[in-house]
Amino acid sequence: MEPSALKRRLVAQAREEGFSGLGICAPDAVPETAARLRAFLEAGRHGQMDWMAEREGWRGSAAALWPEARSVIMLAEAYTPDHDPMAVLREPGRAAISVYAQGRDYHDLVKRRLKRLGRWLLDQVPAGAGIKVFVDTAPVMEKPLAQAAGLGWQGTHTNLLARNLGSWFFLGAIFTTLDLPKDRAEISHCGSCRACLDACPTGAFPAPWQLDARRCISYLTIEHKGPVEPELRERLGNRIYGCDDCLAACPWNKFAVAAREIGYRPKGGAPELSELAGLDDAGFRARFAGSPVKRIGRDRFLRNVLYAIGNSDLPELRAVAAGLHDDPDPAVADAARWAVMRLGSATSGESAAGPV
């Protein structure tokens, strides 16, 4: 099949599979990625994410990851919420979980579609062509590749956004040995807008298009191990897994498209902090089976819940936190004592400075 005709059919098939957008670039389309990644790592802005440095060579060069690849097919899948994602922040007794993690794990759902699309592609060409599919967990810099493929651009907040999709979408990649027609790279359309930067509760953006993960709430609640600095835990509010503030602030979301996958819909309303604080390991695993939340484990999860309790200004939650004073996990026990002190301060004027 003629390459341009194959690409047209590929785009149509991707839509059939439920993807919201598709673009194609060469594996070496963004050679500056390696230098940008090196600067990020040298500045220590990756925090405890040592895996970023361990596979720096592959992460900085898609061509090095699979030298036989001739094309990178980047795909977008919308998970746009059908509710106000910021409303839960006004309910201090409830837990705020990032929109992407309120339903089923996107890794499973997106990868399943990528594999089906990849198999379809191989069925259209002579034997001998190869593919590899990636969804987030491999050392692939999806956002620069997606911009090179014309899907969208990395916004001021460093996340990808698009004129026809807004910012609520996942990215997946299919590397292939097929030499497919490439798309034109997208340019930035953020202009002087600072809405996302000004919305960040922790000041995680040292400058436009720069992120210091060590201050990002998504990093702090998901990747960071051990206690969080007191000054930062106070800014978490009731966010216990991820953060949507910079995404929700983006004006381009007026063009966001509805999610087609029902698995991304929330399994229920925002859970009560008091309920979550009572979960043991088995209860946590059962409660979040099939959810991205499960990956952080019970201890880190409980640590986050206790920070949210400490920030709630709800005296009735003091006893809930006190019940975890002596938890076997040091970070959980520290968070429990901090929460008790914070809520004591709210009711009796005690000092709440620093961890205990």
Describe the structure.
37% of the residues lie in helices and 10% in strands. The chain contains 16 helices and eight strands. Strand 5 and strand 6 (160-161) form a beta hairpin.
Structure described in brief:
With 356 residues, the chain is α+β, with helices and mostly antiparallel strands. The chain has 2 domains: 3-83 and 103-176, NADH Oxidase, CATH 3.40.109; 195-256 and 267-348, no CATH class.
Which class of secondary structure composition applies to the elements? alpha+beta
* CATH architecture name of the largest domain: 3-Layer(aba) Sandwich
Query: Which parts are unreliable, with pLDDT below 50 for 5 consecutive residues or more?
Result: 348-356
Q: Please work out how many helical segments DSSP would assign.
A: 16
Mean pLDDT: 94
Work out the strand percent: 5-15%
Chart the SSEs and their pairings.
Elements: H1 3-17, E1 21-25, H2 33-42, H3 50-54, H4 56-59, H5 62-65, E2 71-78, E3 96-97, H6 106-123, E4 131-134, H7 142-148, E5 153-154, E6 160-161, E7 169-176, H8 195-199, H9 217-222, H10 230-233, E8 239-241, H11 245-248, H12 273-277, H13 281-287, H14 297-310, H15 318-322, H16 330-348
Helix pairs in contact: 1-6, 14-16
